[in-house]
Amino acid sequence: MGDKNKANFAFGVGDNTYQAVGQEEGIVRLVDSFYATMAAEEQYSAIWQMHSAPPDISRARLSAFLCGWMGGPRRYQEQFGSIQIPRAHASLDIGHEEAKLWLACMRSALETLGHCDELVEYLMIQFAVPAERIRQVCQR
Ligand code: HEM
């Protein structure tokens, strides 16, 4: 991609984000890295301990969701049915701190995979939107 095209590149258009992250394979690697980081690093223990489903199930569900969310195939709907993200978290105890931890863990996973700054910054802005809605639904 030339510099001129790069300046005009918009992640949010069509399936650009999905392609930039490396399609389904890239999303699976991102989610694996996200959960490996959450499990391994003490600073994320508060959100790691919230998980009750087996790790394989949590990974599969998040990967399937992110696939459609990034403009790719709607795997979550295909495999698990419909979902409303804030409502799916409503029974959890998620406040500012937990939302911050989730976002930091996701940033760490994106950086571990070596994605370019533009993609990381774009995705962090996008992830902050559902994270804040979740926090509001959990009302902390
Ligand atoms: C705000 C901070 C967040 C926290 C602390 C959090 C935590 C969790 C936890 C504990 C689960 C349950 C998993 C289990 O029991 O194994 C879960 C499920 C899930 N989360 Fe989050 N999450 C957050 C934000 C997000 C965001 C921003 C997204 C999407 C962009 C997301 C997507 C999902 C999906 C798709 C599931 C599976 C839901 C289902 O199939 O029922 N989460 N989350």
Summarize the model shown.
The chain has 140 residues and is mainly alpha-helical.
Notes on the protein architecture:
The structure is a single chain. With 140 residues, the protein is mostly helical. The chain has a single domain (20-138), classed as Globins (Globin-like, Orthogonal Bundle), CATH 1.10.490. 69% of the residues lie in helices and 0% in strands. It has helices at residues 3-8, 16-20, 23-40, 45-48, 55-69, 75-80, 85-88, 96-112, 117-138. Bound molecules: protoporphyrin IX containing FE (HEM). Protoporphyrin IX containing FE is lined by residues 47, 50-53, 58, 61-62, 65, 69, 80, 83, 85, 88-89, 92, 94, 98-99, 102, 127, 130-131, 134-135.
Number of strands: 0
SS-derived structural category: mainly alpha
The ligands found in this model are: protoporphyrin IX containing FE
CATH superfamily: Globins
Please write the CATH class name.
Mainly Alpha
Radius of gyration: 15 Å
The run of helices and strands is HHHHHHHHH
Low-pLDDT parts are: none
Number of domains: 1
Task: Describe the global form.
Answer: globular
